Amino acid sequence: MFRQSFNEDWLFYKAGKEDSRKVTLPHDAMLEEMRTADAPSGSAGAYFHGNVYTYEKEFEAPKEWENRHILFQFEGVYRNAKVFLNDKEAGGAAYGYIPFFVCADGLLQYGGKNTIRVVADASRQPDSRWYSGGGIYRPVWLWAGAKESIEPEGIRISTLSYKPARILVEVRHNGDDVGVEILDKNGKAVVSGTGQRLEMEIPNAALWSEDAPNLYTCRVRLSKNGTVTDTAEAAFGIRKVEWSSKGLTINGKSTLLRGGCIHHDNGILGAAAYAESEERRVRILKEAGFNALRISHNPASAALLEACDRYGMYVMDETWDMWFHHKSKFDYASDWRKNYKYDLQALVARDFNHPSVIMYSIGNEVSEPAKEEGLAVIKEMAEYLHGADPNRAVTGGFNLMIIASAKKGKGIYDEEGGRKDDKDKAMSGMNSTMFNMVTNMVGTGMNRSANSKKADMATSPALDLLDIAGYNYGSGRYPLEAKAHPQRVIVGSETFPQDIAKNWKMVKEYPYLIGDFMWTAWDYLGEAGLGAWAYTPDGKGFNKPYPWLLADCGALDILGNSNGELYLAQAAWGLLDAKPAIAVQPVNHPGVKPAKMVWRGTNALPSWSYRGCDGNKAVVEVYSGQPMVELFLNGKSFGRKKVKDCKAAYKLKYQSGELKAIAYDASGRTRGERILVSADGPLQIQVVTDKKTVKPGEVIYLDIRLTDADGIVEANADTTLTTVVKGGELLGFGSANPRTEERFESGKYTTYYGLAQAVVRAGETGTVTISIHGDGVKAATVEIICEKSKED
Q: What region does 66 belong to: left with phi over 0, alpha with psi -120 to 50, or beta?
């Protein structure tokens, strides 16, 4: 079947058609809603209101379609989607993160105009523990083909072995004869055969792994009496995933997962899943040193998986945040029993050929496994996944504390949703010191909460049903499992970022512990202030009040900028080489002690440029895999310090100039150095993009910085900037400020520690011009050529 984009010229409206406007998909409608302190979504949903979103599109159905098979594919609609063709309900999906198809056969006016209407109902809030977005936020595709055709997602390729490289190709179709060709990256056929189920050996195969993400194409032709009736292709990689208490191997090579959890939103674009955005995030994370992602807590977009395939990023693709017990009052739990089997089927069908996906997670921090019904559900789902896809492990992000507590009848969530143990009112009255002590105890206590024999007995029935047991905040059990459960394979499916050095040491020591996934790799919308180190009076409490917007946790902020969390991980992973890294806790809050949340170990940034702050107290963090470091400020040494858990901290007074760190090995020899310098002189707007030419409709990222003439970012001169685009469309403009009332779609936003970002979609051919200006800084204009490629 032929697939084509069906994303342009949709009519979008909420209350009625009189308020309609044209949009191009993907589109996050919720991002346009008002944010208010009384929004039912609360801090979890970043105080956005929900609504019912309607999309309509008129299209021609050629007369020849009457004898063809027509499908519409929706990659994701949040949520309770209903699809109508010419006013007749034709399909939909309750779950907002699962792809689905709608068959149009017999519902179209052939040779005339037709209308497709999609209604997404995200009006009942709260329905999520993080910002969900709303509407048709992932792409839509039109499939058309002969009645005798290869089914969409009908080609499945399994790796049977890697020495020699043997694959199994299975084809689901409605035709006669099947021919199969395997093409290498250059499009050259390396092997061919016939049949709808055939084993093939690939000569001199290029295997797929994180280090060498080699991809092949499987081309299938369907024919009848020698005439080709349909052609389809599927990309795949040759890789074998195996696991045991001796560890995880990819194609026989021992592999440790340097993992991070990510939510689905794309920062200033909200939930909209642009292919360029997903590719950019995967690329940045891979360059940062991550080799694995846990998609939290819902299935990934297709574009993200395709990027992971290309860059060599392992994926734990997750299903749901809840089963049949609510965590939020109006979440998917009400629909889960009716739909979970379909959700699993759709997940496998979509993920099957992606070599990046090595594990399926059947849920996050659910309490149901404490009871027999929950155990039966795990067994059923694991058996289904093993049968449908034997190439991947079944896991789950299980919080051992939650299961052990539920076993004692002390669940942390009410049946109607929300936490039972909300202590925010009491915590808001604490001073910062007491608040920080309490949150630190929460983190330490959670890690150790399942160490007892009773907790082990409560959690083991569920964990033993999984191929790989995922421990959320259960690092206290890591050293115990060799004796307690010698055959168990475990992964740190969710961990505190500040624990990475200790956790990674255990990953290297215990072969049954295959990796660590920190919360989080990338900051996100909602769960407002979850990881914040807050300098404002409203910063104490797990649920931050309006106008908190971002979780403010992550090794990278929502724009993709790194911080001390990342450098600590890189040091722990052994990726800093000989050079140390430097990050500095912000020095522009003199006399204010931040309220620190446990999901952030540091708020230090790679900047020593805070004009007007000379004399303020500063905390400088130096990260290294070497045993000793030394810090210099303007040539003055502040002494050598031992590195503990990959970090050494210095307290000094800020003075503009040059900050230098030197790392030494055990014999005292210099191994490397790192320098930060202060900005000097007038500031200007610097715009950085890696694209000089684009195609029509392509998405462009522009990183915006307040710098001096030498390009040094100034962190203490934030100003409001305005962005104007000609020859394209401004999709979003904003910063990583976690607490703000500014709007990403307004074109006007204040930098945060000197940084901002604009995202633009190119128009038709010509020049895309982006102009950015603000008070007191030299403006900037960037021009990008937009032209059609030869293939278009």
A: alpha
